[in-house]
Amino acid sequence: MRKALLVLCVVPGLFAAGCASKGAGSDDAGSSGSGRMTRTESGTLETALPRAEKAWAHKIVVQKPGVRLEWVGLHGDLLLAVTSDDVVHAIGTDGTPRWVFTRLPGGLDFPPSASREHVVFVSRGDLYAVDRATGALRNIARTGLSPSAAPAVGNGTAYLPAMSDGRIHAIDLLTGQKGWHFRFGGLVDGPPLASGEGTRTLVHCPVGARGLETLEGIPALTAGPKETTWRATMGGGLAAPMTISGNVILATARDWAVYAFSRGSGELLWAYHAGVPLRASAVGAGDLVYVRANHELRAVRGDNGDLAWKIEGATSVLTPWGGQVLLRAGPREIIVVDAKTGTVDMRVTHGEDHVLMNPDGDRLYTARKDGSISCTMFKKW
Known about the structure:
- By secondary structure, this protein is mostly beta strands.
- Strands 1-23-22-21-20 form a 5-stranded mixed beta sheet, with no helix packed on it. Strands 2-31-30-29-28 form a 5-stranded mixed beta sheet.
- The chain has one helix at residues 45-48, and strands at residues 23-25, 39-42, 52-59, 69-75, 78-83, 88-92, 97-101, 113-114, 118-123, 126-131, 137-141, 152-154, 157-161, 167-172, 178-183, 193-197, 200-207, 211-216, 230-232, 243-245, 248-252, 257-262, 268-273, 283-285, 288-293, 296-301, 307-312, 316-321, 324-328, 333-338, 344-349, 354-355, 363-367, 372-378.
- The chain is globular, with a radius of gyration of 21 Å.
- The protein starts with 22 loop residues before the first strand and ends with a strand.
């Protein structure tokens, strides 16, 4: 692949927007798990993790010697795996191989984007629209643009930000035609995010120091929006890609804070001020929102932004696990934590190359460079 791929996690339905009581997150919770003996396990995840069992395993079949798995991401019920020969393999979250796409001429410019109907790849500035269910190529849009980020996808349209003219362009995924475009007061300097319920789609865009601006996600081949739907100003703009959790947009800003906005109205629900620089996306999982702050991972409450607990050495959330939560700590370690108290119950070392974030919970997807992909699940009974 021509460029390093970054994972943007779009998370549906994790906590409700009924958390509308505003609050400023406080930083008075102590670091949890210290001073308590914890055990360390190693080996396969189904033997080392509490109440775990192997759900399935799959091996990607490659066509050339020396091909390695380079990137894997989760898009709803679909795992997308990209190998070093620029082939995309789609596997269902039940372990069933779905399709293989081999028609990328120059690798991926950005990670894939996906909606309920399409998967979209950007290669050398052109958009490849693929049927999500079958992998069939629907069209190739020769954009003539220099995209600044992966497009948001929804309503049969790709919303592509371009460095070449500072606009966001709406491209019809059925025909490949360019439709309307919109110019903000600044450059869209990160990946836009599409959200929606029913037939209404919103497109949320990071616009430099202006912060976050939202457009109606109007289909490409109709008259485009004349103005933004809502705008949120944050100090210095966004520091990391936005994520969505249910009806809540989570934005990590350069003023050392995480902001939670109502998806539809832009109302500020709460803000958590970390007191230190933040450089990673905030992610909702279960009832908590997780954000990395220096050398620790902090969990704040999804309803008001108050600090619940923090863990030294953890870097990101992986998945809720029964009443616990699995956290990443370096490339080969998982920390098992009590989700309510932040107490560290155990540490697990493993040999996987990729461990995927799955905020929906109770399933852990892992992959190795040799193309082995597996799912370990939490045993409820």
